[in-house]
Amino acid sequence: DGGITQSPKYLFRKEGQNVxxxxxxxxxxxxxxxxxxxxxxxxxxxxxxxxxxxxQKGDIAEGYSVSREKKESFPLTVTSAQKNPTAFYLCASALxxxxxxxxxxxxxxxxxxxx
Amino acid sequence: QxxxxxxxxxxxxxxxxxxxxxxxYSDRVSQSFFWYRxxxxxxxxxxxxxxxxxxxxxxxxxxxxxxxxxxxxLLIRDSQPSDSATxxxxxxxxxxxxxxxxxxxRLSIRP
Lengths: 115, 111
What we know:
The structure holds 2 protein chains of 2 kinds.
Chain A: E1 4-7, E2 10-13, E3 19-25, E4 31-37, E5 43-51, E6 54-57, E7 64-66, E8 76-78, E9 87-94, E10 105-106, E11 110-114
Parallel strand pairs in A: 2-11
Antiparallel strand pairs in A: 1-3, 3-8, 4-5, 4-9, 5-6, 7-8, 9-10, 9-11
Chain B: E1 4-5, E2 11-14, E3 19-25, E4 32-38, E5 45-50, E6 54-58, E7 61-66, E8 71-76, E9 85-92, E10 99-101, E11 105-110
Parallel strand pairs in B: 2-11
Antiparallel strand pairs in B: 1-3, 3-8, 4-5, 4-9, 6-7, 7-8, 9-10, 9-11
């Protein structure tokens, strides 16, 4: 059953803690993305990766970090430097060539709340 | 000027009517255009992609692209209550590696 999984579905963080959000895909997609969505807002790009062991900052990378050690996995760490991390976090993946270039497919999301 | 602009709505349409959702974009060299549907509390779901000027139909959905006017639209025929959601327009511009999302239009289908 192909798709994108994210865990956990809900996450609560205390002030000063780092937390890591998991994203896994078995679609054989090269590119993976992390977005943040705030209530009533569109999606803002945090980080993206086109290939293993390489990633680029998006529009709001401050306070976040990522790694891409495997094609299937793109975890996001929300560090204590992120001052307002409460949001809905979405992971997406896409092919990087052909007619369906950059059609992004999303995982179910992780809702992070700071206590 | 935002890179991708949508009317936030809500757009209220009677059941069975045509819902028309509009989107404009600023990057003239944009190549690929996408419509996503997002139900409340859920993640976006890709419903249409369009790459060439003109219309593209898929079931009750039609995407329309006019690159000269930098305008893309989504028509939903025979609107159903299950179509009530936020619709996100997304555009791949001059940066080939990422797409830009609009803030979305909230659509409400009234019985």
